[in-house]
Design brief:
The chain contains twelve helices and ten strands.
């Protein structure tokens, strides 16, 4: 079982000069500094101790910082990773974020800047984990977004739910962001129904904290129609319409008024429905259709 020490910073760098400077700066600020000279050492260390934040050099021999980051995030998905890089190419910065990095500082390293970034990310990570753990424990289907609709965090249930309904959409949260932003900037006291995925979902506004919004998500109950009966049962379009209203307890006379046909014609349709469904009366036919329509 992994040990856990408060405010541990894992520094992964193949430069002795950088390691020495950061070690002194971190110890002075009260952090416990762990040192790894390469990615494999870093992976070995986290098997024993779970750090609060990781400082990771982007350019290292054998396993570079980007691959190291991907492997670390697979094991420590909630631990913030800050890249240390001398690279100025924006593509390399983006590559770091894509690998799972949350921030970056440029070399030569400024100890004060590094400490400031560490404090911010450690505090944010702990607050997010505390809130998320509490919500997960309560089984809440909640998530948090910014004013722009961008995801800040979500419970595992919500992530799994979105993955299930997003189908071929590889970036479902990016799809949701502009929709949420528009809703948040208008009347967000009204529930938001989203139909962009394989099934409709309803978003509920819970509360606001500073510029972040706590929302919850549930499946939208879809109103069934006679078409659902026609697709599920061996009945015609007109028979499905009659059966639909039987499910809601309507009499033959009431159905005749709704569908503009005579009560006699309604009863003829019902006779055909009984034969096709293999039942003997209205109650049995209604029981079959109610299961399909999920009538409450």
């Amino acid at each position: 079982m992994k040990g856990k020490i408060s405010d541990v910073v894992l520094v992964v760098d193949d430069s002795p000069e950088s390691l020495g400077m950061l070690n002194v700066a971190l110890n002075t600020q009260g952090y416990t500094a762990l040192v790894a000279l390469n990615g494999l050492q870093a992976l070995a260390i986290i098997e024993k101790v779970e750090p609060d934040v990781i400082l990771l050099d982007a350019v290292m021999p054998e396993m570079d910082g980007f691959e190291t980051c991907r492997r670390l995030k697979a094991l420590l998905p909630n631990t913030p990773i800050i890249f240390m890089t001398g690279l100025t190419d924006i593509e390399d910065v983006v590559k770091g974020f894509e690998a799972g990095g949350i921030d970056y500082v440029t070399k030569p390293i400024s100890p004060d800047e590094v400490i400031a970034r560490i404090k911010t990310h450690v505090q944010t990570a702990k607050q997010a984990l505390s809130a998320q753990d509490a919500l997960d424990h309560a089984g809440k289907n909640v998530f948090c977004v910014s004013n722009k609709g961008l995801l800040s965090w979500a419970t595992p249930y919500v992530h799994e739910f979105i993955d299930q309904i997003s189908n071929s959409d590889q970036i479902p949260w990016a799809t949701l962001a502009p929709i949420l932003e528009k809703w948040l900037s208008s009347d967000h006291q009204k529930n938001l129904v989203i139909k962009n995925f394989s099934e409709a979902v309803t978003i509920f506004y819970e509360r606001q904290q500073e510029d972040m919004h706590l929302l919850s998500i549930v499946r939208t109950k879809q109103e069934k129609s006679p078409l659902d009966l026609q697709q599920a049962l061996p009945v015609t379009k007109r028979e499905s319409e009659v059966l639909y209203w039987v499910s809601y307890g309507k009499t033959s006379w009431e159905i005749s008024q709704i569908l503009t046909m005579s009560p006699r014609t309604v009863n003829k349709h019902l006779e055909q429905i009984y034969k096709k469904l293999g039942v003997e009366n209205r109650t049995s036919a209604a029981a079959i259709s109610i299961r399909i329509l999920d009538v409450e």
